[in-house]
Amino acid sequence: MNTIKRAPWQADALLLLVTLLAAGGWISSKEALAGMPPMLFIGTRFLLAGLILMVFAWPALRRMPARRVRRGAFVGLLFSAAIACWVLGLEHSTHLGESAFIHSLGILLVPIVARLLFGDRPPCTTWIALPVALIGFVLLSLNAGFTIEASQLFMVCSALCFAVLININTRVVRNLPPLPFATLQLLVVGTALTLISLLTERETPSLSPSIVGWFLASALLASSLRFYIQIKAQSMTTPSHAAVILMLEAVWTALLAGWWFSETMTLLQLIGCGLIFTALLINRWYWVRKVLQRWLPS
């Protein structure tokens, strides 16, 4: 009985750790990109992470029917498009905190994409949150002098791809066991983007000890360990509850980038990021309220 009572709190703690690992992944990835082409970096990172997880997932993967493997591989290709846009946005980004908040728009776009692709009816909070997020993004664009930067465009594309990916995940592979499915996704992403790198990128990697260290940190901590903990935590709580806590990734990224890269935000950036985060809270208000009721004493 005690274990059951503790489980929700354990899930919250693990999800908070996931957001910190994800935020650290923005830092380690940006550092590694200083010496590696973007597709080579992200491809080999996911390939290594997938091979590590396969050690734990191999028994389940070996028993998985071919039809389910094909479904997982299809979703992995969608994941490849999303993560390719993300790493290109990261490469061009001069402000990680801002990029992280723009990327978090993917959470808000999930019900919109569900409406367009599957006819689902979004909750009324989505229609309230959408103009708030749009104003926030406009303010971030105004900060660059009435222009949309390449990093912002790539991050918006990545957010949209992730919104499509989440919708496909919930419908196509809802009955697949999470660990082998995540492993399959990482392997497909790693293989696809590594091949794209070999075919398109001509830049020679500069693999100094520090670059290798940042690459390993992003692969082992921000990918393998993060996905493993996230899968465990999500099995202990509901997806909507998990999504509320995972929104903190952008906040931690902005704080870490401020500490590590000495990034500062202009007033427009602060207001823009604040409006985007407010929109995320509005969109998930029902579950935000439940989380607050759990965390705060009655």
Account of the protein in words:
With 298 residues, this protein is mainly alpha-helical. 83% of the residues lie in helices and 0% in strands. The protein contains 13 helices and no strands. It has helices spanning 2-32, 38-63, 66-92, 96-103, 105-118, 124-143, 150-172, 178-200, 209-234, 239-246, 248-260, 267-283, 285-295. Helix 4 packs parallel to helix 12. The chain is globular, with a radius of gyration of 19 Å. Mean pLDDT is 87; it is low at 1-6.
- Indicate the radius of gyration in whole angstroms: 19 Å
Enumerate the spans where pLDDT stays under 50 for 5 or more consecutive residues: 1-6
The CA-CA distance between the termini, in Å, is: 22 Å
Major sheet: none
Strand content: under 5%
- Helical segment count: 13
Which oligomeric form is depicted?
single chain
Q: Shape, please? A: globular
Give me some keywords for this one.
single chain; 298 residues; mainly alpha
Give the SSE layout.
Blueprint: H1 2-32, H2 38-63, H3 66-92, H4 96-103, H5 105-118, H6 124-143, H7 150-172, H8 178-200, H9 209-234, H10 239-246, H11 248-260, H12 267-283, H13 285-295
Q: Could you provide a short overview of the structure?
A:
The chain has 298 residues and is mainly α. Helices cover 83% and strands 0% of the residues. The chain has helices at 2-32, 38-63, 66-92, 96-103, 105-118, 124-143, 150-172, 178-200, 209-234, 239-246, 248-260, 267-283, 285-295.
